[in-house]
Design goal:
By secondary structure, the chain is α/β, with parallel strands linked by helices. It has 19 helices and 27 strands. It has three domains: about 240 residues, Glutamine Phosphoribosylpyrophosphate, subunit 1, domain 1; about 210 residues, Rossmann fold (3-Layer(aba) Sandwich), CATH 3.40.50; about 150 residues, 3-Layer(aba) Sandwich (Rossmann fold), CATH 3.40.50. The structure holds 2-deoxy-2-amino glucitol-6-phosphate.
Length: about 600
Amino acid sequence: MCGIVGYIGSKQALPILIKGLHRLEYRGYDSAGVAILDGGLKLYKTKGKVSHLENFVKDKNTKGTIGIAHTRWATHGEPNNINAHPHFSRSKNLAIIHNGIIENYASLKEELIKRGYTFTSDTDTEVLIHLIEDIKISEKVELEEAVRIALSQVVGAYAIVIISEDEPDTLIGARKGSPLVIGIGNGDFYIASDATPIAEYTKDVVYLNDKEIVIIKRDKELKIRTIENKDKTPYIQKLELNLSALEKEGFDHFMLKEIYEQPHSILDSMRGRLNVKEGSIRLGGISDYEQKMANAKRIIIVACGTSWHAGLVGEYLFEDLARIPVEVEYASEFRYRNPIINEDDIVIAISQSGETADTLAAIELAKSKGATIIGICNVVGSSIARATHAGSFTHAGPEIGVASTKAFTAQVTILTLMALRFAQMKGTIEKSRFYQLINELEAIPEKVKETLSIEVQIKELARMFTYTRNFLYLGRGYNFPVALEGALKLKEISYIHAEGYPAAEMKHGPIALIDREMPIVVIATYRGAYEKVISNIQEIKARKGKIIAIVTKGDKTVKELADYVIEIPETEEMLVPLLATIPLQLLSYHIAVMRDCNVDQPRNLAKSVTVE
Ligand code: AGP
């Protein structure tokens, strides 16, 4: 939530900062702003998207070579020009950008008001910059020391960057709980919430750790200090980020591009890990822990949103194949409900961004109780990836559309590989069955490609249901998480109310909603509870609901009952989520486009939820 970017060097800062904000816009898009040192500290900010800011600053002729910029997802104070970042200090000598929440802002603000400070915005951020300036003046210390003292008084999460009119060759950044990456170029430095604004300028990056402050001076070496005042040596890493992955490459939206990338992203998540000829699965990132995982008495999966849905598929896979008991927990509930966590528990944290605040807090809690923490993350270098003992990256490539698509299928692929590996290690699967499953898993990317060819049909369907107000999604077994995921996708990008339910639970309540206006998407693929799902379809039909069925290619029975059918290729029951999710992603996408919704940046949402 909120994207921050800064630059210092020999180039004009403004274009670099605006381009950086466009890359970070997935993190928040209700207002944006920039501060540049150009003679004095020039500050421009507007409500709305980065493109509004871009237009606003077009004729400002701001030539400065040092600056900071911000794209906001509002927490404290409504989205407007005043609450947009950057925020000035009282003297207007300092400006700050901030991602996160200062939890004790009210008490700090009260103190500052007593000391004569007045506030122009409703933000917690303005409190922090006043506090820093107050400390700088009253304690007569350098800016970097004032930042350090101020941060030692702050409770909450932050990634900040500060610019000062008095120090035109310095940027100061700091983080706790929210990410910050520094790019080291040739005579210039970049600082941002993630590496996407940096990638085209340099591959040398330093990921700042929690409670660290970075002092970036023009033409000087980077300096890192902790809030406890210890010097740290910057650890420079090489960035691996393909720039084309950050562009739409001819697609109308990132979401559509990412849906179409799935044959590749699933393959990439298996690459070098699945060897069908040898009958082996190697997950290098967890090799030191796989014995412990396979023998675990219990695995707890923590995640949020779509990643939680992937976790639910994981539960079915681990229990089904490897006979390991699994609990799947919403990270936000887990962290606050005093859960029982034992030292021999394995906690798997699933997160695309690797920055979700609740998931991170759940990890810290489980760690403090001595559990082993395994990550399944997409973003290399992210906070969650670094907080875990070990893990497997999904390698799905950058996911920019706020609605998660390729990350979900990549997460499910990793969970499938893990479950199969543990089953093989424990001997809970027959050799021939193991071979059957890995052969079928290897065939999935081609089958995803085949599934994508139904887009034209889905578009027609979307046209028929564009203005429907409610949807129900039903599935059983492995298809229950798919129903949840289908409903979430529709809600978040088209703003249509949708509910996902286990098909058999329908008769315990939701059946009352069914009438001839209600479309019900039923995932009714072969195997598993196929016959039972047919009975559920009959129950819907008897109440005149409109049935949209996702069926296995060649199915005749459901075809006769349903109003509309979408065929997907046949596969193993436990691999169906990797295929059945695709038409549901496409359906949500096309309905949202037809409703003229902003598909990649839906209202009120942000891609990485770094506040609780
Ligand atoms: C999915 O489409 C959502 N945008 C959201 O539910 C997301 O999956 C959730 O916020 C978790 O994010 P993470 O995977 O980055 O932790």
